[in-house]
Structure formats: C-alpha cells, structure tokens
Amino acid sequence: MNSREKDIKIFTANSNSYVGNEIVSVLGLPLGQSAVSTFADGEISVTIGESVRGSDVFVIQSTSNTVNHNLMELLIMIDAFKRASAGRITAVHPYFSYARQDRKSKARDPISAKLVADLITTAGADRILTMDLHAAQIQGFFNIPVDHLLGISLLTPYFASMFMGNLDRVVAVSPDLGSVTRARMFAEKMNIPLAVIDKRRQNANESKVHNIIGDVRNKSAIIVDDMIDTAGTLCNAAQALCDIGRAVEVHACATHGVLSNPAYDRISKSPIKKVVLLNTIQCNLNPPYPKIEYLSVAPLFAEAIKRIHHNLPVSPLFE
After folding, report:
1. How many other C-beta atoms can be found within 10 angstroms of the C-beta atom of residue 218?
2. In what order do the strands lie in the sheet with 206-213?
C-alpha cells in the first residue's frame, strides 16, 4: 500500500454479516472490531473496538427484514465512524430498502426512497456502494457518489453454463413492462431473445396476464427481475408461460430475495423449476429451500471495494 494512502477498514452490522465475512475473506483483510446490540427498550447501541481515525471505512449492511431496525443500525454506525474521525465512510448497501417508494403514485404519497437517501447522507456517509436499485434514477436522490453494481453480471454466467450448447432454445422473460430494461440487458449478455408478460392490474394486489409478447413455445424460459417479494407476479408469469406460451420449462432469477410470506408456498406450488438469487439479503433457512439457489455477491463487492479504495474506476465491473 502506498504510504500516503489511507488504511482500509471493513465493518459489518447485523443484517448480512455472512456476506461481510465473505468480503473480507476475499480481500484477505480482518473484519473490523465492532459490536451492535439492542437495549431493553429497543434502542440500538454501537461500539467501535478500534481506531478509525483517518481510515477508509466501509460499513456493510443491507436493510432487509426487519427493515427499520437494520436501517437504524446502519445510520448509527455511520454516525459513530464520523464522530471517530474516519477519513472516508462508504456505506456498502447490497439491498436498498424503500426503493419501491421512489415517486408519488397518488396524492399525498411520500417519496420514502429519497428520505432514506437523505438520512444516509446526513448520518455522514461520503459515498454508497449498492446493487440493482429498484429504479435506477434513485442514484440521483443522493448528493454523494453512488456506485451501482448490476446483478446480471453474476446471473448471466450461471445460466450460460447451465444451458451451454442449447442457448437457441432459451428465452429471457420480463415479468411486466417495468422490468423490460433489465431483462433486455440479460438477454443481450446471453445472446438470446426476449419476451414480455403483458399483465393488467384488476384490483389492489391482484393482476391478470393478458398476453405474452414474444415466442416461448417449446423453449426454456428464464424470468428476470430485480427482486422477489411475495412472488405473486413471478408465479403468475410462470403459469402463463406454461399455459399460454407453451414453454417447456421455467426458471427465474433475481438479485434480491425479499421472500415475504407467502413467497415460499407460492414458489413451491408453481411450475418454476429453479429460482436463482443473489445473497444481498441473508437467507436464514436451514435446511435451504429446495427450489432456491443462492449465488454470492462477495467477489463482486470485494473487487468494487478494492477499486474504490485505490481510486480506480468501478465501471469495468459492469462489462
């Protein structure tokens, strides 16, 4: 390390400590000494066990279930590092919660994604490293630099290997019109065609598939999305691909596995053969759910952290 370069220190809060430990293992660094606990009344207590004065600090935390508690852990840790005179603080935020509340869809709605961006900045973060924001324009909600990694850079090699030699029988599928850009990028990287599910919302939390734009007949379909929450959209799309499109098999992939109830039950009863997720949100299922497979984001985040620390471009990681 250059003598003039800040030393690097990596810490993790509680929501995704597994990925934090994987990242430091890839980088060959020790995990920073810290403790994040909760008082009897629910208040969060943070203790930093080593000096960070002048250091290049990276704090790893997804704000998954429970969202608000994990968000407060992140904010309080950032504040602790700021008050301890860290040289630079990067919030490593694999899953950014509240991202679906990125605009006013009706009168008097909040724009919660903007509020969370402001909170992270006000707490003292100097930059943020995240992956697959639900809406890419959320990057503009921050007044600090944002490095936005893409999950398809990990998902496409997996499926390219799975269907090696048979890509002419594979089609990427967007589960709705809002996910077309992401699914198109996946299709271009895989060099396969694209299909789109045309669904219409009947009532709140209820939608119906009207048409499939594109040819999936006698093909293996891969549904591509940024997150799976209750899995309603995903499973409806999978059923339509089999019933209307006559696909021979359906797989699915997404970056973030939120998997709220009743996601597991829906996936189990659906025609989906396999769901491939990235571990941006820690999975605590033991044993693992049979239809779901996780790929690690640690190597990609470790490389991004190394590049940020050495002031190198992160853009090659998108290629």
Report:
1. 10
2. 206-213, 194-203, 170-174, 220-228, 249-257, 272-278, 292-295
Q: What is the DSSP letter of 167?
A: G
Instruction: Count Cβ atoms below 10 Å from residue 118 Cβ, excluding itself.
Output: 13
pTM of the entire predicted model = 0.93
Q: Pick the closest to residue 167 from 151, 147, 149, 189 (CA basis).
A: 189
State the catalytic residue, choosing from 9, 189, 199, 219: 199
User: Which residue in 233, 283, 235, 237 sits closest to 257, CA to CA?
Assistant: 283
DSSP 107-125: TT---HHHHHHHHHHHHT-
pLDDT digits (tens, 9 = 90+) for 297-314: 999 999 999 999 999 999
- Set out the domains of the chain in order of their start, with CATH numbers: 8-150+298-318 (3.40.50.2020), 152-295 (3.40.50.2020)
- 199 part of the active site: yes
